[in-house]
């Protein structure tokens, strides 16, 4: 059969053919499963399913970032938890054969920018975007937010109500992704992470069962969902604690030149250091917005005091910083404070955490600027990186509300989260920017560890696909998450069928 080949070559060729045949069978089987699932959904919910031939397909498949756009075989937009339940049961059965299932993605707000995070090639896209209810309870103790709601919906619909709650700082982000990733808000210094304020999760399990996880029912699942991402089911409603508030805040955006960096970083260190005094109502985010080609840029200072009548003492150095290129500080309703980030072409986020230390902050800054030079050839590349304080008083506020699974509950030092968010236009440079971003991530981890200031925590809300936020919570917490997964998802559907998010490894 192979006259010019020796026995070893024949065996190798046969092995290759077997592998290719196996892949073909697997591909054929997956396509059969997906076709069966799409058909079942179409028959049950004809007005809520589109496929690639539909004129609605392109608009339904839009994402915040072009980098997240893939080509699902069909898209399903449920209106209720019951619709989600039907879909999940359908996905778990596939075409009906032993071991069959349908790969699918879960989209809330669709703000995570890497391909596969909330979309899928060839599978089914489960889009919760029509489940965007925002209802304040009669006793004004919580707000019920649909699994597909955006923070914009929540802020707009409660404007003027005299209540407040922690939520995404960018209104265009989804309630689901922010909350299941932990969530950092302008109220974090007072009430901890967004997930800490959740009183109840309504969630559809892999069996299709709809359960409520809270402080008295399914308490292990309740804890796991506070930072555990999409590993346990599809959350269809979040009941979030609210509190009385004037809804007025003081602050805004201040922009200073890039050559103000030394005093900005010194101010960042002082602000993050709790030994300088706890300022729970005051929030700060430092954002560098740099042109990778020219090296020019600006520093955006996002400043807020959620107590509009306070003295704003911790923020005063930033209010007074000169020269200013822009000053939009004012007293304003919180619904008007934040603005959504417009849709972007290509973007990636990756993050790391380290102990608040001035020399380390400068070292992180220097590394970030050096790595920027490796992508200076990429046209129209904005090298955006941001610092976010994670002071001890934030963790104390988190623990006061029951805490979470993110592994920062024993924090003894003030931390800083730094995340990189390059933005570019041309897909042909994707590999270059991705490589530079991963190089940055590993360089920051290595440097901060080498100087004794590293911390394992990785914020899932800002993480890239090459990171492992679930493992960063610590071995004990990771094993707890795996135990919860085995209990509530014994078939492992959300580990094998949902490719997006951050998985738990061997469950």
From TrEMBL:
Chain ranges of the FAD-binding PCMH-type domain: 68-245
One Pfam family, short name: FAD_binding_4
Coiled coil: none
Name the UniProt record assigns to this protein: FAD-binding PCMH-type domain-containing protein
Organism domain of life: Eukaryota
Keywords: FAD, Flavoprotein, Oxidoreductase, Signal
GO MF annotation terms: FAD binding; oxidoreductase activity
Signal peptide start-end: 1-26
Keyword Cell inner membrane: no
Family as reported in the entry's similarity comment: Belongs to the oxygen-dependent FAD-linked oxidoreductase family.
Phylogenetic lineage: Eukaryota, Fungi, Dikarya, Ascomycota, Pezizomycotina
Keyword Flavoprotein: yes
């Amino acid at each position: 059969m192979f006259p010019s080949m020796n026995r070893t070559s024949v065996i190798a060729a046969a092995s290759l053919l077997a592998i290719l045949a196996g892949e073909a069978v697997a591909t054929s089987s997956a396509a059969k499963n997906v076709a069966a699932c799409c058909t079942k959904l179409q028959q049950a919910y004809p007005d809520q399913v589109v496929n690639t031939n539909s004129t609605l397909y392109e608009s339904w498949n839009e994402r915040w970032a072009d980098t997240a756009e893939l080509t699902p075989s069909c898209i399903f937009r449920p209106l209720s938890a019951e619709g989600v339940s039907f879909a999940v049961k359908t996905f778990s059965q596939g075409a009906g054969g032993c071991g069959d299932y349908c790969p699918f993605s879960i989209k809330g707000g669709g703000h995570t920018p890497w391909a596969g995070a909330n979309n899928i090639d060839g599978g089914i896209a489960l889009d919760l975007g029509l489940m965007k209810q925002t209802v304040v309870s009669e006793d004004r103790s919580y707000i019920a937010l649909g699994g597909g709601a955006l923070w914009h919906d929540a802020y707009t619909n409660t404007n003027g109500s005299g209540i407040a709650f922690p939520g995404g700082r960018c209104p265009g982000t989804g309630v689901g992704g922010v909350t299941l990733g932990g969530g950092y808000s302008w109220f974090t210094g007072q009430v901890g992470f967004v997930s800490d304020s959740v009183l109840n999760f309504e969630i559809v399990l892999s069996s299709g069962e709809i359960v409520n996880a809270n402080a008295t029912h399914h308490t292990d699942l309740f804890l796991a969902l506070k930072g555990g991402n999409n590993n346990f089911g599809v959350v269809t409603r979040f009941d979030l604690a609210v509190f009385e508030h004037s809804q007025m805040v003081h602050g805004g955006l201040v922009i200073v030149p890039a050559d103000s960096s030394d005093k900005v970083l010194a101010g960042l260190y002082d602000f993050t250091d709790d030994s300088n005094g706890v300022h729970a109502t005051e929030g700060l985010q430092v954002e560098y917005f740099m042109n990778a080609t020219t090296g020019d840029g600006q520093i955006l200072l996002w400043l807020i005091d959620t107590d509009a009548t306070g003295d704003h003492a911790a923020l005063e150095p930033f209010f007074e910083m000169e020269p200013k290129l822009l000053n939009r500080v004012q007293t304003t309703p919180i619904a008007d404070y934040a603005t959504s980030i417009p849709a972007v072409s290509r973007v990636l986020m990756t993050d790391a955490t380290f102990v608040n230390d001035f020399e380390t902050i400068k070292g992180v800054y220097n590394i970030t600027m050096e790595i920027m030079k490796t992508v200076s050839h990429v046209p129209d590349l904005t090298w955006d990186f941001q610092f976010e304080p994670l002071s001890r008083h934030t963790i104390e506020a988190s623990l006061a509300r029951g805490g979470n699974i993110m592994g920062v509950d024993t924090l003894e030092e003030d931390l800083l989260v730094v995340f990189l968010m390059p933005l570019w236009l041309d897909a042909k440079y994707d590999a270059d920017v991705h490589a530079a971003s991963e190089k940055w991530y590993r360089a920051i981890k290595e440097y901060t560890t080498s100087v004794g200031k590293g911390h394992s925590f990785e914020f899932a809300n800002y993480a890239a696909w090459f990171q492992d936020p679930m493992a960063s919570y610590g071995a004990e917490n990771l094993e707890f998450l795996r135990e919860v997964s085995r209990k509530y998802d014994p078939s492992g559907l959300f580990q094998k069928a949902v490719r997006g998010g951050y998985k738990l490894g061997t469950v």
